[in-house]
Amino acid sequence: MSYMFVKPARHRLAAIVGIGAIALAIGLSGCSTPTAGAAAVVGDQRISESTLNAEVQATLALQGLPSTDSSNELISSTLDQMITEILVNELASREKIEVTQGEIDNLRLQYITQAGGSQAFEDQIGQQGISLQDVDPIIRVNIQVSKLGDVLAPNAEPDAKSAAVFIAISELSSELGTEVSPRFGVWDPENLTVGPSENSLSEPQSVDLGSE
Q1: pLDDT tens for residues 109-163?
Q2: Are 50 and 107 in contact (CB under 8 A)?
Q3: What's the mean per-residue pLDDT of the chain?
Q4: Long-range contacts of 30-36, Cβ-Cβ distance < 8 Å, separation of 24 or more
Q5: pTM of the predicted model as reported, rounded to 2 decimal places
Q6: pLDDT tens-digit series, residues 34-51
Q7: 56: alpha, beta or left, given left = phi > 0 and alpha = psi -120 to 50?
Q8: Domains of the chain by start residue, with CATH
Q9: Nearest to 42 by CA among 89, 106, 77, 99
C-alpha cells in the first residue's frame, strides 16, 4: 500500500487522508428539519455547528492565522471532509474492514521517517492545519480507503481502486440521505463536496458559527 500524508484535494477521494479528527453528536432529535441545530446530518449522525467551528478554528490556529480569517471556502471544505470521513467509516464497517493500532503506528513511523524526523513531521502537518492529535484518526481513514480499494476493485490499478471507492461512498451518501444545513450550503453526493446554495452566507463566517 502507498500513502501520502497531505491535506486533501477536493473532488479526489485518493487524497482523503487530510481529514481531521471529529467529535460527533450522535442521534436525531424531534426537530422539524433534519439539520435543525446541526451543520450536517449523515444517516443517524449529526455534526454540530460547534464541532465544525472548533475544526475551523483549530485549522486557522495551526496555520498562524487569526480566528476572524475563517472563510466560506475553509468552512465548506472542512465540512465536506468531516462528512466524507463519516461515510468512509460507515462503508468500512459494512465491508467488515478493520484497522489495527499496529498498522496505524507503522504508517505514522513511515510518515515521520519520510519527513526527516518528528519535528519536521510536526512542522509539515502544522502547515496543513493538522494537529498531532488528529494524526491517528487521519491514518486510520487513509488505511480504510486503501483497504476498501482492495475489496471493491481487487485487480485494478490504483486510480481505478480510488474511483471504485469514490463511487461506493457517493452511493452510500445518497442512501443515508446526507443533508447540510442551508446555512452552509448543499451537499453534492456525486462529488462529495459542500456547494453553495441560495441561502448560504455570502460573506465569510465569524468566529462563532453557532452551537448545537
Answers
A1: 999 999 999 999 988 888 877 888 888 988 999 899 999 999 999 999 988 998 9
A2: no
A3: 78
A4: 34/177, 34/179, 35/179, 35/180, 35/181, 35/182
A5: 0.76
A6: 556 799 999 999 999 999
A7: alpha
A8: 13-195 (1.10.4030)
A9: 89
